[in-house]
Write the structure tokens for this entry.
Amino acid sequence: SLRSGLGPARQRRLFEELAPFLNTVEGFVLDDVLLARWLEAIGEVPPAQLAVRAARRATAAGNPDSAVAVLSAAFNTQEENAGAVVELARARTEQGEYGAALGILSRYRGSEAAPDAGDRIRLLLAECRVLCIEATGLRDPRSAAAPAEPARMRHTDLFSQVEDEITALGKTPGIDIVELRRELILTRAECHSAHGRFLDNATYLASEEVETAAADLEFRILRSAWLCEAWGMTSRQDDAVELAAQMERLLPGAGLSAGTYARVAGKLLHTYLITGELHACERLLDSAAAAGMEGTYTELGQGLLHAFAGRPEPALAALLPAVDQLAVGGPAAFLPLAAAAAAYCHAMDGRLDEALQYLQIQRGAADGGPWTVRRGARHFAALAEAALGTETGSRRFASLAAQDHKRSAYAYELLARLTAMRLGDEDSLDEVLSVAASLQGDFAALCESYAKGLGNADAQLLLRASEMAGNSGHQLLAREISEHALGIASGAGDRATVRFIHRSRRATGPETAAEAADEILGALTARERSIARKAAAGTSNKKIAEELGISVRTVEGHLYQVYSKLHVGSRRELARTIAEQAGAKK
């Protein structure tokens, strides 16, 4: 920090004084990125090997701009060095400049350069990755020409070519075959996930070929992060959560770069979300913040967690700055997700104009990138539209669920079926039961209890489902299920259950007396609530009729319904019940 604030001449003198002691066993060992940037600052050309190492570290740390700067300072044209081409392509890919990355790789392939076997494989893997990203539909806004359609299959063909070339190398001296195979495994796992092929990923990452490559701690953590997502998405939710918790415990002492840490934490966070483990999400975000992980990704993770739990205010506090940052600096793939979640939270809060504004941002953003990100954006967009009153809500989720089933993304299928059921689609009830019965985990059990309770009009089963939802952090879902239980118990004349629900709500309670009164009146119609409030305040039936412009007989009929639903017998008992719920003594 002190060095960067000095002029070039002083920086040079400082470097010359320290040079004899740098990167020696007895002296100082400087980070490659710092050393390369220091040389650049004093007008020296960083050695080629140092520049390549520094660029690799900078990209891994989530700072591809520094990688590009280091390579530009070290080489007049990066195409003269295969390692530099690989790192520059990786950096440009991380910047979202996919056209530039492909251009770099194409120019090198068309040159007379003859890379060694290891560099050739790394070049092919770099090309696999950028072609895979473009095949998802994500485009580089700075690239005028769209890639040819055959590119969608070409990157999968390149994987086979890389596999064949690694096998042909055998035990060639001077080439780290194990490291090349690990890089192939992680690139292929990323490709499977990007295209939503989770069953393929689960099979591939659990194969003997991958297991034998898993000695290195960083590789083992990365491989496990992809496997967590694959298991959580398909049908092994308990296994996914257990493995995610193991990796979470390893993270603090694993010595991962900032970029790798963020990537692993993102996969674990997604695993916890899709398996309904919201408290585990909170724990992971807290530990990530303690480890120094901050910025747009952290804000987005916090916002999605709160939105998923039904907490609009804290969700918007995190999502709105994330949307602003993503709109300016990317990555472009995450903007639709953040905007759709913000739209849903605005709609939940009744801010309809703001919800429509953020839906427009979501619709106008690039529709590409990893399948999970695109699917999450569609989920929140459909929720926002349903909250805005569109009539296509449940049908939209039924359609999403059918698509999820085709690609074996059963966790999202369950979520979509559940949401359709919550929006009033009675046909989804049996679908929820069917999908939930085939999955592991507490969230699947919660969904099964909810559907059975609704189907059998079983208030006690619904209460258990509501408790499960509350214990796992699903606040909005817990309240919705509780409302169903209250309605069923009221209709059945189950006075004990009604009072139990009211006592439970008072114990966990709303923060204000007005909110408490709203809760106890939640089983009533809007007109019944209005009359109940006036009657509880001591207003006569005649006065109520005059104020509302209805007959006294109509007021009496509404009061009869109120007394029946709340199991009270008089104005005084009605007033006392509402006051007790609000925490007052009458």
